Predict the structure.
Amino acid sequence: MDYGQRHGAELEAAKRVAKRLGAVEHRVVRIDLAQFGGSALTDRKIEVPSAGVKGGIPVTYVPARNTILLSLALSWAEVLQAQHIFIGANAVDYSGYPDCRPEYLKAFESMANLATKAAVEGRRIEVRAPLIDLPKAQIVKLALELGVDPAETVTCYQPDPEGRACGVCDACRIRKAGFVDAGIEDTTRYIE
């Protein structure tokens, strides 16, 4: 999803990973949430914090992002007659986003099965979040087991134009800790 985020590094990384892993189709849907602002990830006037989250929901939360993204995925799932929507949300090692909680995803799934032709016709759609309860260390190990090179992925909130991670934002700090906890060398390309 190109949702108006500060950078295109994660979009390029997704394209590379999808191609390397043999995805049948890879689409990028564009919706400009930057026009609403309200997040350090979509509004360049709001600084990305580099000293850690001080409690509460951080300024990197993008208002309603997962609801919007899941709604678009739901639309495509209906067209494809898919029964599952997958999301990489994580409720263990994350920054406190309300739309990464299991109860939110269950509520979205309930809504999806009230509001779609598929469900009315008896084809329920499930929202699956296979990473939801995994600590970052387990996610690192799983990625490697599945053949995903962490150096090809981007989680940084403010990578440089070459896609190298800043190393200081919450996403980078959580990622670094995951590699340490997993006892695996961090192959992420950092600026520092």
Observations:
- Helices lie at 9-20, 65-80, 102-112, 117-120, 136-145, 170-182.
- The longest strand covers residues 84-86.
